[in-house]
Structures are given as C-alpha cells and as structure tokens.
Amino acid sequence: xxxxxxxxxxxxxxxxxxxxxxxxxxxxxxxxxxxxxxxxxxxxxxxxxxxxxxxxxxxxxxxxxxxxxxxxxxxxxxxxxxxxxxxxxxxxxxxxxxxxxxxxxxxxxxxxxxxxxxxxxxxxxxxxxxxxxxxxxxxxxxxxxxxxxxxxxxxxxxxxxxxxxxxxxxxxxxxxxxxxxxxxxxxxxxxxxxxxxxxxxxxxxxxxxxxxxxxxxxxxxxxxxxxxxxxxxxxxxxxxxxxxxxxxxxxxxxxxxxxxxxxxxxxxxxxxxxxxxxxxxxxxxxxxxxxxxxxxxxxxxxxxxxxxxxxxxxxxxxxxxxxxxxx
Length: 327
What we know:
alpha/beta; Nucleotidyltransferase, domain 5; 5-stranded mixed β-sheet; 3-stranded antiparallel β-sheet
C-alpha cells in the first residue's frame, strides 16, 4: 500500500505519468491499478460466528450442516478455513495417562507365588449393582475367594485379602490393574507392611493380567449370565457354589483337563532324599532335592525307568552305584 501511495504522490507533485512514476519506484503497473474485491465471506463469517455463539460445543461439520439448512451454498472446506481463522475450535483437555513400565513375567513354580486380582460388575434382578473382587492363583489357577458386595473400597479389599492369607498363606506378588482401589495409599502401604510385591500392569493392557481376565470371562459366561440373582444373599450363595465347582470339579484345559485343586496337589513340592551305599553297606544321606511340578502319578514311572536302566534319575552317589529314592 505504501508503494501505491508513493506513486500517487509522485504523479501529483512532479507531474509524472503513471508509467514514469511506476518505473521510478520499481512498481508494476498492474499492482498499482489493482483494486481489492469485496470480501465474499463476510456474511458467511458473520453467520458462522452467530451459530458458534449459540452452539459453542459444535464442531465445524455440524456448523456447516446448520449453515446449509439456513440456505448457504458453501463448501465444507471453506467453512473449515473460516472456522480455523476465527479460532472457533472446541478446546479439548489433554487426557493425563499414567505411565508404567512393562511388568516382569516371572517363571512360576508353585502356589502362592503370585495372586492376580480384579473386579467384575453385574446387577441384581431389582437393578441394583453388584461388584465382585476375584482372586486367582496364577500358578495353580485356583480361586481362593470371590467377594460380592454393592461396593468395594480399598479397605474392604485389604480385609478380604487378610482373610484369604489366613486361610492359605501369603502370596509373594499381587498383580493388578491401576484402579483407584489398587493404587490407593492404604492398599500400597498394606502390601508394604505385609512384605508383598505389588505389580501394576500398564494402563490399557489387560492382557498383562491374563489369568484373572480369563477367569472373569468364565465367571461371567458360566455363572453371571446363567443366573438371575434375586437379592444379595442369593448372589453370594450362587457365586460361592460356582467357585467351589470351579476349583473342585471343572476341568481346566491349560492344566491338562485337571481341576485346579488336583493340579495344586500334584504340583506341591516333593522331597526325595538321596541315599548312597558305601562299601560297608551303610546308607548315608546325600541331600534332599525337590521335584517341583512333578505329579504324584509320574513318580512310579520314573522309579521304574530308573530300575530298568540301572541308573538313578535324580543323581548318582559318589561310589558310582545307583542311589535309592526314599519316599
């Protein structure tokens, strides 16, 4: 604009022609003659602003639809351009996400090494909500308990775990998600006081707590969806009966179609003291290695194989003779 003003000043003050003034000031004549066109979007912008004041949570697509209904023949891209220029975008708060590292998957060799806990929701026949705390032993796949109530706080969770620990012993690790009950200061301090390692999975990664998620699926499919709970006592009784059936009668495919209680009995640590025979014919103890994970039904097979081969399956004595396995 200043260059055009300068050309006009030179023409009027020094009586230069348009061509001479533009050449002197190095301005193209077409630029000097240019006249701005009226803004075609002024009315559209005013209508868009009016709609945005009425519907402040609408995005540009909905505002465009309203403009079309009002009779405006306008492209969606033009509405989007004006929408951005007027800074009408709906402000969205950035969601704060908890960042956790990938939890370690330790190799489990026995019961009570790791418990997996989670919540399941359902409702009574009256519509009142139910909430269940499920506890699963990650090795034996046993369910020590299912707590049923209308609501379960962090203090209630610790009371349930205290009862289960008194019945079957303390776990080394508890694996859970990032729910408020499991991340509360009370629950964290309770785990520290008990010497239990609290292992939180990553947010949005339920597969990292797959044992309890699988159990919850069986619970919902075989119990919750198959029963209509009349009241709280009816729900507790039916769910407890299903839990006992799950532990004692239901074959588990990942356990070789054995029940969790059968697998827990067979996988209990067994001691096999090795005794060697010296030259005088007297036995002396060589140690007591454990055969964790070996079922009781496999022990006679191993003994028979050891007798046929003349070699000891669990070790040899220092004298070179096969050691005897004492039950």
